[in-house]
Design brief:
Helices cover 28% and strands 26% of the residues. The two termini are 14 Å apart. Strand 9 and strand 10 form a beta hairpin. The protein has 2 domains: 100 residues, Rieske [2Fe-2S] iron-sulphur domain (Rieske Iron-sulfur Protein), CATH 2.102.10.10; 199 residues, Naphthalene 1,2-dioxygenase Alpha Subunit, Chain A, domain 1 (Alpha-Beta Complex), CATH 3.90.380. The chain has 369 residues and is an alpha+beta fold. One of its GO terms (molecular function) is 2 iron, 2 sulfur cluster binding. This is Rieske [2Fe-2S] domain protein. Keywords: 2Fe-2S, Iron, Iron-sulfur, Metal-binding, Oxidoreductase.
């Protein structure tokens, strides 16, 4: 198992206390945090293998036989809706030779591995394996898919690779109350579409981009930055134990839309990877997942306010897609800079980028625990 002390020695990193002090002084994490395979492995073990992460909207697993595939860090996961009405989660890996059980969402009474045909119930229990009757010591009843934790939070399904994880409520406690305070309630919004983005960057670069809006007036000047006020006097950001919150008033509306009573944009990012947002027309819930030290994947489930003008909804969805594509391009380019090995760390503007300090402190502390 990788130890943080070994990583420090190999890459010449300072102690945890020194890194935290440098963060307080306005330095970013050292560059190896964004490309070192050992740190990537530590993050899998200490963060993603033990964290609740958003998986899908409940509509993906609404009926018996439904199943949905996702990831939680390096762990591929399948969520099933059993005949008994129960949602269950499993590692999406056949117990034979570790092929994926399913590669996309679907509905079937049984789960069959497409490689050799091993077939499992929706409860994860192996039912049949071709030619297994020729093996005198083979017993299907002793083999099942590896379980993971799965829970609903309203209409959203969350997973945790740890089958003995503490309840999801230990993470969401306080989030609902704060969300209510700033009118961030997506429960009545209707699912529209899922956007997916493959990034050529470390997952933390994408997450760090998500938790600050210092870049919004420049990078998103024809998308998000055109739609919402993003100057520091109007756009509010703060953080609590594990969540960073954003609020921004609306600046631009399609022709003919009445601005009276509009609440603007609200956003929350919960460490390590889940986020949700709401404005007056659409909302979204999503997750960013590490794939390798220099690659990550994000998916964003988009929702629309019931009764909203479809033309306005489409315009808003397109704006969000453009915004997220702009983020992808920026963080992909950032990765090249980190890989150069010529700049040991970045320099933050503490007044404008304090959310980055909060995120980075949480990441460093988790790896050093």
């Amino acid at each position: 198992m990788v130890q943080m002390e070994d990583v420090r020695t190999k890459y010449g990193l300072p102690s945890t206390d020194e890194m935290l002090a440098r963060l307080d002084a306005g330095e970013t994490l050292p560059a190896p945090f964004y490309y070192a395979p050992e740190i990537h492995r530590l993050e899998q073990e200490k963060i993603f293998a033990k964290s609740w992460q958003y998986a899908c909207h409940e509509s993906a697993v609404a009926k018996p036989g439904d199943y949905a595939v996702t990831r939680a860090g390096s762990v591929p996961i399948i969520v099933t809706h059993g005949k008994d009405g129960q949602l269950r989660g499993f590692v999406n890996v056949c117990r034979h030779r570790l092929h994926a059980i399913a590669e996309e969402n679907g509905n079937k009474p049984l789960l069959q591995c497409p490689y050799h045909g091993w077939t499992y119930g929706l409860d994860g229990q192996l039912k049949t394996a071709p030619r297994s009757q020729r093996e005198p010591n083979f017993d299907c009843s002793t083999i099942s898919l590896e379980p993971v934790s799965v829970e609903r939070w309203d209409q959203w399904v969350f997973v945790n690779p740890d089958p003995a994880a503490a309840p999801l409520s230990t993470v969401t406690a306080g989030i609902r109350e704060r969300a209510a305070e700033i009118n961030t309630d997506l429960r009545e919004y209707e699912f529209q579409v899922r956007y997916e983005y493959d990034m050529e960057c470390n997952w933390k670069l994408w997450a760090e981009n998500a938790v600050e809006c210092y870049h919004c007036p420049t990078l998103h000047n024809t998308s998000f930055g055109k739609t919402y006020h993003t100057n520091p006097d109007d756009y509010a950001i703060d953080s609590d134990a594990n969540t960073i919150w954003h609020q921004g008033p609306i600046k631009w509306l399609p022709s003919g839309v009445d601005p009276a009573g509009l609440k603007g944009f609200r956003f929350a990012f919960t460490f390590p990877s889940s986020f949700f947002a709401l404005d007056d027309y659409v909302g979204f819930v999503g997750s960013v997942q590490p794939v390798s030290p220099e690659k990550c994947w994000a998916f964003v489930d988009m929702y629309a306010k019931p009764g909203a003008d479809p033309v306005v909804v489409k315009e808003w969805l397109d704006m969000w897609d453009r915004t997220l594509i702009e983020d992808k391009r920026a963080t992909d380019i950032q990765q090249i800079g980190y890989n150069s090995g010529r700049v040991p760390a970045g320099r933050l503007l503490l007044d404008s980028e304090s959310p980055l300090q909060s995120f980075m402190r949480t990441a460093v502390t988790a790896l050093s625990s």
